Give the backbone structure.
Amino acid sequence: MAAYLKYLAERFALFIATIVISVTVVFIVPRLVPGDPLGAVFLSLAQMGGSMNATELVAEYTRRFGLDKSLWEQYISFLAQLLQGNLGYSIASFPSEVADLLRNSLPWTIGLLTVTTLLSWVIGSLAGAVVGWRGSGSRFLQALVPLALILYATPYYILALLLIFLFAFHWPIFPLSGNYSVTMTPALTLPFIADVLHHAFLPALSIVLVSLGWWFLSMRSLIGALKGEDYILLAEAKGLPERRILWRYAFRNALLPQATGLALSLGHVVGGALITEVIFGYPGLGWLIYNSIKGLDYPVIQGSVLLIILSVAVANFIIDIAYPLIDPRIRQAAPD
Amino acid sequence: MITHNKKLLIGLSILLLMVIVSIIGVLLTPPELRRTGSFLPRLPPGEEGGLLGTDALGRSVAIQIVEAILKSLLVGLIAAALGTFLGALIGFSAGYFGKLIDAVLRVFIDVFLAVPSLLFLILIASLMRGVALPAVALIIGAFAWASPARQVRGQVLSLKERAFVQLSRLSGMSGLEIIFRELMPNMFQWLGANFVNAFIAAILAEAGLSLLGLGPQNDITLGMMIYWALGYGAILQNLWWWWMAPVFALIALFLSLYLIHLGLDEVMNPRLVVRA
């Protein structure tokens, strides 16, 4: 128990360090990099025809954003604002707060990524187990391995492009972009839900197919490694049906490392498929970041990045504290 | 050693083939054909459009793709070299000096392993609009040190306790001498494997940044090719040759690099081969 408490304290310290260090990087980086966000904004305003006393406005904004204070003071007020959940205002869509924009995008990203992560994990693990168990016996099953390898090696947004071309353009079965038809009003009705699923299908399929490859390959090698274990041999010697040995003996033992992988990738749900959203015009966090980059909206980019960092840190911390409870071997071994 | 591993052999062959074809292609291209409007726009592959057709701006896709492959590889090379070098330096310091230095560096390594570096890259690149290719490569490299650092640290920790290192310490070698004459030579294969990983990650990061609109605006990389193609609505206009060329080049590139990575793994851990 004492060992677990010490381990907990260490993990908590790392959790805090993760947040402090990455928030500091987020704070420092824009101040080190050559480039002037305010100047850029006014330039783009001027290009759109806004005439104004730019120098006075820049001075006013510099004062208002506290850019005339010392670096240390800026840092402290930056942290204070963050602690209150205040991420500032969007520049491109000015009166909106960054936090509100994030709140609107987040559900779409989390919904899409949670469902696809779970689906690909289940399908990939089951298929990987079957192929790992009797792969050498069947040509067809063997052929799945290079396929999975290609899927795993492919960047996740590449498949998205191919799917859009095939199933939204060439055969227009699915919509090209968006999260629901513009003619629809969001409501918990059957047609609306069907419309949302219709729009989410292709983005989801592209993510599922690509992440499938990894789960498949790792489960296959886990099962393959278990094959020669004594308890499997014993089960075979007892004459148990093969199906039972695979699912009750081998699969259950391979599940633990596979579940860790699942937990880790669930931690990356928020920032997991930014570019897929860009390609499908799916209004999640990735789409928000993409549009903020186009609109020179630095506060929104920064807010999104901070949100993703925070969610990754929290998820890692939860996995760290939960894992020893699931796997007693880790609880007893002094964690390094 | 290399010829005995099928994965390594296939991966290297694909990669070499792509590089050689690209270099020949770039060398054979007269500079005036690189400009926009050198060809009629939107020609499909074939007689008039050339091998891979032309894009909406009247450039040959074939001419762009060979240059893009080399530029993407260049970004990967610079970034991976920087990342591996920084990683080796940090990992070495942590592993060799131990104590407080190790404790502090370990926290940093863990933090930068946990947080996806694409996030920091987005932040920096979005402030430095219109960055050139070397800058993109350096930014990516500057955030690619965490994984090699962890590997190198672990390796140094285990090497440090081996008999030959302790012997050289007893025989009066200085710290630096031990690092360079005893430890470094044993690290090369690890650094090699790390380099391939960093290379893959860097090319991936460049393509990702480019698709978000943060790539090297005046250069043509595979990511930038897709970015421009999408920006001009290549999918909707059915200019499939324009966006498919960089897409399949990327797939081939990643497949070859991944095979090399797997092959190197097997060469270094012979136990893996027996099982597979």
About this structure: The CA atoms of residues 180 and 225 of chain B lie 43 Å apart. The mean pLDDT of chain B is 86. The two ends of chain B are 17 Å apart (CA to CA). Chain B is about 75% helix and 0% strand.
